[in-house]
Amino acid sequence: ESYLTRLKLTEPHLKSFLHVSEHVLKQAESLDHRIDRNENIGLLAGVLVGVKDNICTMDMPSTAGSRVLENYRPPFDATAVKRFKELGGIVVGKTNMDEFGMGSTTEASAFQVTANPWDLSRVPGGSSGGSAAAVSARQCVVSLGSDTGGSVRQPASFCGVVGLKPTYGRVSRYGLMAYASSLDVIGCFGSSVADAGILLSAISGHDRLDATSSKREVPDFTSQFISTELLGSKPLKGLRVGLIRETLDNGVDNGIKSAVLGAVSHLEELGCTLSEVSLPSFPLGLPAYYILASSESSSNLSRYDGVRYGNQATADELNALYGDSRAKGFGPEVKMRILMGTYGLSAGYYDAYYKRAQQVRTLIQKNFKTALDENDILISPAAPSAAYKIGEKKNDPLAMYAGDIMTVNVNLAGLPALVLPCGFVEGGAAGLPVGLQMIGAAFDEEKLLKVGHIFE
Ligand code: GLN
Predict the structure, then answer these.
(1) Residues 71-83, mean pLDDT to the nearest whole number
(2) Ligand 1 test: best mutation among 127, 154, 419, most atoms within 8 Å of CB?
(3) Bridge partner list, 189
(4) How far away, in angstroms, is 127 Cα from ligand 1 center?
(5) Which sites are catalytic (predicted)?
């Protein structure tokens, strides 16, 4: 009840949700009855979870922020949703997002723009801006987002919450509406590392409905969250931390640099040994990501033809029906991505764009492998700036894309990364949060969660 009251009060200012469930209290009551009957209730019993609107929820709208899916109600739950529900988690509602995950601010949502709880005139980041704002404003306890190129980590940074992008394949993508299938992962938001880690525990593991989900055993992520008082004065002694040189180059705000360097000295105080590492291919990540993500999306989004799902235009003839449904259903950013992707994949340009971007991707993977052989974790800012004003970059897509420089490389390499608050810069009434990104080796979420928990 207290969460719902808070949600009602704050939602008119924030607009984090596209849909709020009417069944929350009824579901909570039925858990109470189970407690009364001494039945086992799960790890997440009664925990309110916000779910990004591109993650399918049974009998609840799931639009991916697009008119093309307005009124679509999936007849099934995404595996991640099914899993947290089995442990007693309750879907509080569906959170706002940039259409199909394409954007960094939520301004590309077809329905509404979400505000940043730290300063209502600023963006919450994106594309999972609704999920980040909802946790930041305590409208729910934890939330799910999706991260194709930073969509969990950048909004976590802008909203001052913890964002966790798991290794590609750790969490099933079944029921996650595809943007770029080789990059997409479902990730977790929480107001602490422990909260995000507990949610990850609930949703991880192999799923026969997603052939790319990993069969690796899932460690008990929750076992790390012991009292930090028990750990002594240098709890991270011997941990090798590599600061990525290319991420502190020009183009990063000074306030962000000093917050990150402050975090680095804190890690040293905790016993870490620090070195600077170079990932020479790092700056190539941005163009490679935008070519690959657009190419994959141009193929994935062909399923929205007005026949199989969602909104259908009225037309006398089949091709006009496809064309009109897509013309009316997709917003401008999505259309631009489809055009860019189709161009990059077309016969005359494939070698110059798509193939080249794939080669860069291999190079980036190799660079990370070398750096992570020599270091336990790598460190960078989560974004080159703090949250900016609504409208500031709306008409300058290249400036907006450039803001993804810190995060896209991690998706290209499929690695896990944790973003957590590490300070403030000036702005708003109380300052604006800055996020620190920790990148780990594939399937080593456990180490990230341990370091993150001790750090915070
Ligand atoms: N901002 C990036 C894009 O628009 C990343 C989005 C995401 O991770 N879904 O593609």
Answers:
(1) 96
(2) 127
(3) 143, 163
(4) 6
(5) 52 (charge relay system), 127 (charge relay system), 151 (acyl-ester intermediate)
Question: How much is the pLDDT for 249?
Answer: 83
Q: What is the pLDDT of residue 233?
A: 84
Give tens-digit pLDDT for 95-118.
999 999 999 999 999 999 999 999
293 lines ligand 1 (CB under 6 A): yes
Looking at the annotation, which residues are catalytic?
A: 52, 127, 151
Position 196, amino acid: A
Residue 150 lies in a domain: yes
Q: How far apart are CA 149 and CA 265, in angstroms?
A: 28
Ligand 1 center to residue 268 CA distance, Å?
32
Residue 230 has pLDDT above 80, yes or no: no
Query: Which residue segment(s) compose the domain that 12 sits in?
Result: 2-238+384-455
pTM: 0.98
Q: Look at residues 455, 443, 373 and name the one whose alpha carbon lies nearest to residue 414.
A: 443
Answer yes or no: is the C-beta of 380 below 6 A from any ligand 1 atom: no
Q: What is the mean pLDDT of the chain?
A: 96
ipTM of the complex: 0.98
Cα of 55 to ligand 1 centre, how many Å? 15
Measuring CA to CA, which residue among 442, 365, 369, 380 is closest to residue 243?
380
The CATH number for 225's domain is 3.90.1300.10
Strand order in the sheet with 432-439: 17-20, 90-95, 48-52, 142-147, 185-190, 162-165, 417-425, 432-439, 377-381, 240-244, 273-277
Identify whether 139 is part of a domain.
yes
Which residue from 52, 66, 128, 148 has its CB within 8 A of the most atoms of ligand 1, so it is best to mutate? 148
Which ligand 1 atom is at minimum distance from the Cα of 101? 9
Q: Which atom of ligand 1 lies nearest, measured to the CA of 290?
A: 10
